[in-house]
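To fix ideas, we now present one chain and its tokenised fold:
***
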Amino acid sequence: KGIHLIKHAIYSALERGCQVVLLGSAPAEEVQLEFEEMRERLGQQHWNNARLHLVYDEALSHLIYAGADMLLVPSMFEPCGLSQLIAMSYGTVPVVRRTGGLADT
């Protein structure tokens, strides 16, 4: 899902004074551990502007879609993709890679 792009985007956004919310879990254990370490660092450095909720929660996802200004979808491969469509239904602007179904929507 473009993990390296997510990490870069989080730090770049925080440097610009943005707030960041990440919801979900990584498919590979080593990547999940990287995000857990990142959550700890961000909790110390950017405790007021960054939240990483590293398990998926459907109800919380809808609150995030509704409250976000934009949604980052940096997938390297995405045959269809629903998250960008859900985001648009809430008025949230999806920022996506030009790949697969993301490019079509």
